[in-house]
Amino acid sequence: MESKDKNKYEELIKKHKLPSFKELDNEFEISTIDKHEFPLREIRRKITEKIDLYVALFESVLQVEPTIKTLNEVGAFSENEKENLYKIFRKLMVIDRSSIETSIDEDDEKTSKFIKTVFDQWKDMKKELLPVIKKLKESWIEEKDIKEILRYVG
Questions:
Q1: Which domain holds residue 138?
Q2: Which tens digit of pLDDT belongs to each residue from 26-40?
Q3: Does any domain span residue 67?
């Protein structure tokens, strides 16, 4: 990102009382934005891009397709843990749908409100996401009977 573009972002951040460029960049990698015509919209899109990554991940665990990956990972969670996953999934979906809603009749005020709201929520959501991600990773570390997993795949 060129310095003139970064300055444009800095001005909007101050004007709309958003988190700092550094904070937004650290969480949502906004410095990788290529288009700079609508900076706040691009920040919203970067946020949504990250949220969509987690939506897809949670969806694959909650809506099991008979693939080795999902069958291996879904088995790592108890029913209570799956209920908790669904609660987190719902929060992610509210953010995702709020982004779409904001995009319909978008202006800087609505977009900055979305950015602030999600940024504040994101701090707590990361704490909820980390144990889930660790558990998914651990599901691959633990030795499992491949025959049991493949039995479901066919």
A1: 39-153
A2: 999 998 988 778 889
A3: yes
